Amino acid sequence: ALQAGYVGRPETSTEALSDAIDMRVSKGELRQRLGRMNEAVQIIREALPLLESALARHPEDYFLLTSAIGAHGVLARMLGTSVANANLGRLADARQHVDAALLHARQLLAPSPNNVESLNSYAFALGERGNWLAQTGDAVAAVAAFTEQTAIRDRNAASKPDDAQFRQQRVTARGNLAGALGMAGRHAEARRTMDEALALAAQMAAADPGNQ
Description:
Helices cover about 75% and strands about 0% of the residues. The chain is an all-alpha fold.
């Protein structure tokens, strides 16, 4: 409610605008968890004009590009790409947001291709692309997307070995890839990939039995 007092002011920083958009995305995700899907989608759609206006003025801003990836990626999940949470099953509508998330992720990565956080955002967008491809029946392209995602997740985990989120992402990426490999009829590879995921998950559990 307080955003109306500052988002339209010319002196408002891009970081503050990014936070305003992220708040909307988080609010939408809360509605998604309650199963209020149309409301969730509408909340995030309401943030898109602010995002587009800010990006038009600052097309290379790190904070705004990161928010764009999140907003479009989460909206795609709500519309149809999510395999773990409620969605509306509107895969055709999800396509433009999948593409937008990936486009902004590539823009974010271009000036700093080794930046860990930029790579993390790109891997997120790749995952939404892979989920969309898998659910629309293009298993071969889904395998390619998830293979690239897995390589990035491994790279990030190696660069920050104490980061539990990055270690967990290696597991999830392999689960995604194994599913796509199975859809493509490459069952032996799918089994090996899922075995790798289970082994990595077991290592995490053993290293942190208190689940901290």
